[in-house]
Predict the structure.
Amino acid sequence: MNQMSPPPVVELIPDTAPFSPEQRSWLNGFFAGIVSLDSAVTPLSSEQGAAVMKGPGDGDDGEAPWHDQTMPIDERMKLAEGRPLRRRMMAAMAQQDCGQCGYNCHDYSEAIASRAEARLNLCVPGGKDTARMLKNLYEELGKAPAAATPPAVQQAAPAPTASASSPGRSRDNPVDAVFLSRRRLNKPGSEKDTWHLEFDLSGSDLDYVVGDSFGIFPVNDPALADAVLARLKAEADHMIGARSLRDVLISDVSLAPAPDSLFQLISYITGGERRQKAKALSSGDDPDGDATTLDVLAALEKFPDVRFDPEAFIEALEPLQPRLYSISSSFNATPGKISLSVDAVRYAVKNRKRTGVASTFLADRVKPGDVLKVYVQKAHAFGLPQDSNVPIIMVGPGTGVAPFRAFLHDRQATKAKGRNWLFFGHQRSDFDFFYSDELNAMKASGLLTRLSLAWSRDGAEKFYVQDRMREVGRELWAWLADGAHVYVCGDAKRMAKDVERALVDIVAQFGARSTDDAVSFVADLKKKGRYQQDVY
């Protein structure tokens, strides 16, 4: 039998095209399939396909050493030096994977880099620092030669999953929930103002699992909006589209902090020294040493003689973003309801009272029966072990106790057999022992195997949860050796770092390891999902 010689290979993409050999091979096959050429184009393997998707000279190993919520942005960007642009964009994120932007950090950066997402201000935890860095990186993206990443091999933004696109599963598709009640968690005499809040979800068919977060769309304090109106010398009923200027200021735009775009606008419509100051502020500089204190009202007070067109002023402001809070209830224990534990943020700058937008909306202004726009943000690598027999160690001072209250109620409702150990702390035991009756009852019943408390203002010296951990280090190590999972919730800047450092010390001392080996041990816990953080 005569064998037929193979047909000639048809090269549609010339060697001079700015693609790697793997990309040319893939594109030849792609276009050959379109025009039905009878060619000997060979499909790429999955490994070759991955090489194509990386792009020529990508040089990225897929690791993200900057993916640490406790690391400052300048350190994250230093670790990302020399990495592809999309990876540097990821390093600019706050690394919380909180979902407040509608993505996780990796997917948000990929969406921006592929130009599928044009909004650069969605990372609320990252604030101005992230927005400015993303703006600079996006400009770099615009300067990149078009041929560097051909359209056929660009990474597309991940398609939303069915659950993420369902009602109430993302910020882009919220549902209604009814506010039920609030009660103060601090006793009279406390320096803090913390609230337990409950909502009714029964009208939305929305559910959740412990570890998830609850997204709420707040509105600004009407008194603040009125103060801004007075500074603008604008009429409250001036129409912006189909709505009044006052309504837009209350419901649609952020009034804190003042965005760079507002200072940019000011620099366009003023002159002299004021123009130079406004330009400096819009670039992230701080000519008068007060940039971090400038909300929108303070910015107007800083430039009192500037007159704004109301439409231009609104366009210069950022949209009012939803806020995420750790859920402090279990759907298995209280189906159709959800609860939060929220610190009301109140402080003063230059004798003017400032407040947190969402926290004081929930603590002061929303009334029982009010309907709010809400959604559930699925947790990313923060939740109970699949095996309910696994012991858990929870470290949650202050409102960091919220998800662990949920964990405990869930384990109680599902009759989980695993042991539970909670470290809780705050300022003073007499005033700040949140959920004390519940937690003591859980301890008495045996559900809460151990309850370790730390009060930073009760004694002559400050004493924190990490100090209590060290005191019981031998027992804590025994739990770890028994397979316990560790969870940390709360402040990322100090507490989370101090807790991890204490854990490393405990592993080194009671696990008979060097410091380097102890660090590696804790890192391995993270990789295996046995050390999880919900920090902010």
In short: The longest strand covers residues 175-184.
